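Service request form, structural biology core

Requester: graduate student, group of Dr. S.
Request type: structure prediction, single chain
Budget code: on file
Notes: please return the result as structure tokens.

Sequence provided:
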Amino acid sequence: MNTSDSERIASVLERLGYEKAADGKEANMLIFNTCSVKQKAEDRVLGLRRQLADLKKTKQDLQVAITGCMVSKTSTEHDEKHDQLLRRMPELDIAFRIEDVAKLPKLMKKVDPSLEYKDELDEGTLENYFKIIPKKATKFSVFVPIMTGCDKFCTYCIVPFTRGREYSRDFTDIIEECKRHVEEGAVEITLVGQTVNSYGLSFNDKKSGKFEKFGSSPFSTLLREVDKLSENGLKRLRFTSPHPRDFTDELIGSMAALKTICPYFHMPVQSGDDRTLRRMNRNYKTAEYIEIVKKIKSAMPDCAISTDIIVGFCGETDEEYENTYNMYKEMEWDMCFLSRYSPRKGTYSEKKLKDDIPHELKAKRWHHMNKLLLECAEKSHKKYIGQTLKVLVTHINGNKRIGRSRAFKEVQFESDKDLTGQIIDVKITKAGIFHLEGERK
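Core staff response, request fulfilled:
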């Protein structure tokens, strides 16, 4: 989501006549695109104050902006009412909500009236965040946002309060953007959203009536339509991140039938204990999650599934933690993004629940769970030894070519050719914890 947002910000700046600087010290404009589900992430941004102050002393024309999940109000330091971050970090000049990126030129001008730029902007295009053509990092693999905001209100998460309520992008606009990317050389498209599979199902979406014609699962319809681009050269279709509550039988059936859908899904569980899930307001039970995974693997036997888990959430007893640990042993996820709970200011859990798990116990549980994570990851990788995988090469490190398989496994192999952006057959010869190694066939 942040990568997709940043590509749209870069597009706006480029159209203003800016070019990417080699590093922060050379820049006239710095923009921090933040993601702060946890307080620790926000603290890291606040910790940049001294560095930014030093930069501003040596570069008088430097403008510093912040966007993403930390921003609640689009404003500048000169506005009478502005985002609290501009008070907490006086080194900042601008704060803007990501959906207001079209307002960035006016905000920059407000901070520095003498600022001149190539004003070739089509306000009709830039007034809608979704319609901004992104400055793509690569042509062969692209992100396409299909929604913004969130209605799930997990108690530990600030996103619904900073990004707002959930609403979905126009169906036709998504397809048109996907078509344009494929025409420009994209072989892989990743559809992104806060809870991507609830596309078209939010209160705002139902109120608009625009998605009624797509039935009970508009996301399934969207996947089927994007999949048709296989006739134009699309090879891979991914999406992230889904919410278990919106993983319907229709969606699973659609995924299994599509040519381009990749057999990898990141499906956050957060906890393996029903009481903890209730405190998190996840609105499903562990048995329901397990049943969904069984259905996916039945329809797509070779698929890989990763997850998110938070240890040490408010009130987590030893028994509740053990339930999560035992669920991990049962599920054997291919990978897990494991974190220790930290209260995020402004969330329900920070206001209403007690962060009563000692730091030492959180660390103990994290290390205990992480050991199992590493064991399961290595076990899942070993089954690929001897198999030939199709690898989309994404970057180069010396003589190594690095890319992803359809199941999102990182694969490394040696070659004296560039191969970036190409799909290469690689026979797997070695399995590590976090990547596979092989030989080009």
